[in-house]
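Exercise 7 asks you to align residues with tokens for two separate proteins.
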Amino acid sequence: MVKILSVDDEMDLELLLTQYFRRKIRKGEYEFVFAHNGLEALTMMVKHPDIEIILSDINMPEMDGLTLLAKINEMRNPALKVIMVSAYGDMGNIRQAMNSGAFDFATKPIDLDDLSLTIEKAIEQINFVHKTQQEHSQLESLKGDLAIAGEIQQAILPRVFPPFPEDSDKLDIAASMTPAKDVGGDFYDFFRIDDDRLGFVIADVSGKGIPAAIFMAVSRTLIRATGIRGSDPAECITYSNKLLAEESVECMFVTVFYAIMNIKTGLVTYCNAGHNPPYLLKHDGKVLELPMSQDPMVGAIEGIEYHTHQLQIDRGDSLVLFTDGVNEAMNKDNEQFGDNRLTAVLEKVCQSNCQQVIDAIKDAVTAFVNGAEPSDDITILSLKRL
């Protein structure tokens, strides 16, 4: 039902409107309420806050139609439409009303057929406003949900550094995940397997937004639950791939670098499933890139057998893992940050602690993109044997 307020000091207009629109009134499509000047109209609007269309005469006692229009404008309700009514010769006031935000006008004597069309046109606009307001409310609700999802996503990642105080004289670890949107598809993780071994992982899910975030949470949980049992990295990734590929939706996949480090010996066994090769920062200042992955990403192809490789980390060496949001970060000229710039940054921080390494990379990327829209999540994990 559309509630219409008629404001006019001519009493016979009430009978005219109720008679002409009697069928719509009986069907419950229209409901009319009446006032005889601007002050009464404001009172009726308080009594009936669901009024959506106002038919207002311009020349009335106590408060005229132009003053009433000004008061209505102060309410800032885009779904409230005002149709001004006045004598044909009063075009100056009608023009002023239209310039002041009236939806439309009608001249006296009123052509009720034309007025009916004007009301229908107003209803179309009101419905459009309501739909827009509803969509806006839904977007605001979704925005709030995404913000909460982002907080939850950050909360499930390790955030306390150093994570293992009992080994703070043997190992330094730091990590950071900065999503490009409200939620991200990257993740990192590390966990104790036993007294001597530490598992750590970095991964990048295909796609963006909520689907990637859900796939990220599932992938992280699966790899952690499998890896914490002490399985060989290749066995862990092979098993994770089996489960993810069987249930993959929209052909989603995740690139993964998963490794186990023996804290006492510095021996690292790892499996790289389609991920960016990490960098080894030697204590003598050399920066070495690990070999490119020969194994495919996880979740894309069923029946894949993954492979384990070994790496020795000496005392003073650091391992830096990252997602392609780092080297593929783009500036406003669509130029990528690239591997050469990343290597140059790493060469300057070989002797630094893990948090300093991460900060240096993020600062360099931020300076390079120089305000350009983030194209991907930026995730970095650094591990140093002390």
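Second protein for Exercise 7:
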Amino acid sequence: MEAARVWRSCGINRVSLGVQSFITRELRQTGRRHTAETVEHDIQMLREAGINSLNVDLIAGLPGQTVTSWEQSLQWIERLRPEHVSVYIFEVDEDSRLGKEVLLGGNRYGALSVPDEDLTAELYERAAQYLASLDIQRYEISNFAKPGRESRHNLKYWKSEPYVGFGLDAHSFDGERRWGNPDVLLEYLKAGKPAVETSTSDIAEEHFFVGLRLSAGMEPTPQEWSRFERPISKWLAAGMLERAGSRLRLTDRGVLVSNEVLQEFVNV
């Protein structure tokens, strides 16, 4: 409690909790030690300390996850009433023990019980519907919030606005160029300055790649309409994109295959 009060006195007004699931057996498969009750206690503590903008992360597609267990996790969201919820799709990461096991076709760590793509998509859609019933609306592919409680920090990324990152492995963007700090502590301390890596971004590609993630979509420039005419026409015809005046946005179907859609706007 004292730590949370110090955070609030320093100006911290938002905390994100990497819950992933409220089901103990699912948590243990991923090596997590907390429980649903731990999360409930922490949220109460944060609110008592004056931090009243809280996010909870959930992952759809964890080993052993079912429609029933997923709905139980969503019921905890209704019980705890966070202002913001992030729902991510489970991804196989070759650097994790579970990811390696899945790629090798093994059976440890619940690798054989990872839901297939159809079930994972159903879990995501159920989450979107359930959260909407709580007035927690989707405003980005993986992010849902009560009205006015969207993450201002992350919106800067999706709107391609400049930002500055401080510390180990932090990245920055000035509207044209990107740079990042070393991700190894000794290298970071020796560098004495940021910008060890620089790259010039293709602003038009990024406009589509991040802008289409937003539920509100994005508004291409006349030059972008021309340059990206082929992928735009393809996905409009397929029902994955829709046009509203001068704006483009993903349809509900398009959200489920967003990686495939967005990839076609890279290197065009």
